[in-house]
């Protein structure tokens, strides 16, 4: 199976502090991979490198065969992102927010409108297309951001602490929507979090601590590799 994305030897320094210390892993199609790490582990730095906001000091990233270092525009075109902080225009309608994003990716208007209607209906937003985003709940705003991230059908979907500020019901609905996309489209998702419960049902867990990968595998294997017991207990002990 060809890797959908590959991180190879990433190093990122801030002065004397090493935020990423030779980080390497691959991401395969049809997987939700949880990047689990405490605050300060390097998750945000990794996502800033993956989205082109920062350049790595060493190493490279390939997405759908495109090098982020040598062909950044092609690599970034294969990535969809749901950021930790909400990034919709509150005064625009749901439809106008999504059309704007589709235009940035060069989607033809007819195709964009069809995908907007289909994807919003699938996530219970069909009746909200003409509503200003500020009228939506936090959970529904996140759903709009998910629709936006997937409009151009990216090879890799990045979810950066996407449940911050959401109530338990909205958190569960977002996880369910992501898992459904993995199953139906065979998408590849990297979900960053410090909440161990969000690793439930994940295909793989990557445990990041002080810029280094401590464990990589299915949740039970990661628990075992980190000392046994529940995933939460093993994670807390390994990152104390």
TrEMBL record:
<dbReference type="InterPro" id="IPR003439">
    <property type="entry name" value="ABC_transporter-like_ATP-bd"/>
</dbReference>
<dbReference type="InterPro" id="IPR003593">
    <property type="entry name" value="AAA+_ATPase"/>
</dbReference>
<keyword id="KW-0547">Nucleotide-binding</keyword>
<keyword id="KW-0813">Transport</keyword>
<keyword id="KW-1003">Cell membrane</keyword>
<dbReference type="InterPro" id="IPR017871">
    <property type="entry name" value="ABC_transporter-like_CS"/>
</dbReference>
<keyword id="KW-0472">Membrane</keyword>
<dbReference type="GO" id="GO:0005524">
    <property type="term" value="F:ATP binding"/>
</dbReference>
<keyword id="KW-0067">ATP-binding</keyword>
<dbReference type="GO" id="GO:0016887">
    <property type="term" value="F:ATP hydrolysis activity"/>
</dbReference>
<dbReference type="Pfam" id="PF00005">
    <property type="entry name" value="ABC_tran"/>
</dbReference>
<dbReference type="InterPro" id="IPR022467">
    <property type="entry name" value="ABC_transprt_ATP-bd_su_PQQ"/>
</dbReference>
<comment type="similarity">
    <text>Belongs to the ABC transporter superfamily.</text>
</comment>
<protein>
    <submittedName>
        <fullName>Putative ABC transporter ATP-binding protein</fullName>
    </submittedName>
</protein>
<feature type="domain" description="ABC transporter">
    <location>
        <begin position="5"/>
        <end position="235"/>
    </location>
</feature>
<dbReference type="InterPro" id="IPR027417">
    <property type="entry name" value="P-loop_NTPase"/>
</dbReference>
<keyword id="KW-0536">Nodulation</keyword>
<dbReference type="InterPro" id="IPR050763">
    <property type="entry name" value="ABC_transporter_ATP-binding"/>
</dbReference>
């Amino acid at each position: 199976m060809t890797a959908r994305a590959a991180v190879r030897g990433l190093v990122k320094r801030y002065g004397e502090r090493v935020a990423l210390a030779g980080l390497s892993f691959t991401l395969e199609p049809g997987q939700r991979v949880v990047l689990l790490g405490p605050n300060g582990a390097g998750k945000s730095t990794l996502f800033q490198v993956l989205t082109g906001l920062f350049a790595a000091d060493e190493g490279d990233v390939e997405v759908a065969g495109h090098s982020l270092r040598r062909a950044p525009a092609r690599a970034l075109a294969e990535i969809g992102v749901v950021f930790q902080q909400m990034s919709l225009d509150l005064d625009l309608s749901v439809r106008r927010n999504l059309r704007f994003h589709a235009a940035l990716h060069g989607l033809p208007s007819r195709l964009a409108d069809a995908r907007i209607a289909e994807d919003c209906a699938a996530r219970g937003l069909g009746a909200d297309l003409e509503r200003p985003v500020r009228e939506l709940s936090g959970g529904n705003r996140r759903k709009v951001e998910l629709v936006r991230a997937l409009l151009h059908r990216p090879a890799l979907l990045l979810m950066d602490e996407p449940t911050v500020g959401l109530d338990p019901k909205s958190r569960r609905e977002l996880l369910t929507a992501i898992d459904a996309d993995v199953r139906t489209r065979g998408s590849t998702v990297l979900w960053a979090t410090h909440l161990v419960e969000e690793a439930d049902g994940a295909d793989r867990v990557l445990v990041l601590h002080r810029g280094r990968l401590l464990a990589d595998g299915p949740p039970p294997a990661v628990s075992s590799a980190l000392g046994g017991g529940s995933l939460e207990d093993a994670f807390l002990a390994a990152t104390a």
